Amino acid sequence: MSENSEGPYFEDFKIGQKFKSKVGRTITDVDNIWFTLLTNNSNQIHFNKDYTEKYFPGEPFKGRLVVNGFLTLAIVAGLLVEQTSQNGFMLGIENVKFLHPVFSGDTIYADAEVIEVRESKSRPSFGIVKIRSYGYNQKGEKLIEFDRVFMVRKRGAKWSS
User: Which pTM was predicted?
Assistant: First the structure.
């Protein structure tokens, strides 16, 4: 990462601060099938339409392929990187809740709130931020909720410190 990297610094974060994704991301069948294959997920609900039509014909599935939940998580996290962790790196994800299925053709939007801000004990040039992230579809239905923890650089700090 360059010294001129865009994004907030540790000092810019305040508990209760809110973020909203600037754009949405529409998920396609190709996205879902590729992700499912890349992760070796063999659950047929993600790639076998005949299977879902037979075993999940009712609401909310209606025989549709279900998007892999971890793809949804990755997209929601990615939609917020520029505003949150562009000047840092992820330490972990906690308290993941998949609240509603996601289907091909759904457009995902994200928002988040800062829930913890603290100094790093091991890296004095960085701080640790925890945000609660939410993903929504085009209908406003909440799809996923999780806490993302990342280490973010302090203003003026070098990456090597």
Answer: 0.89
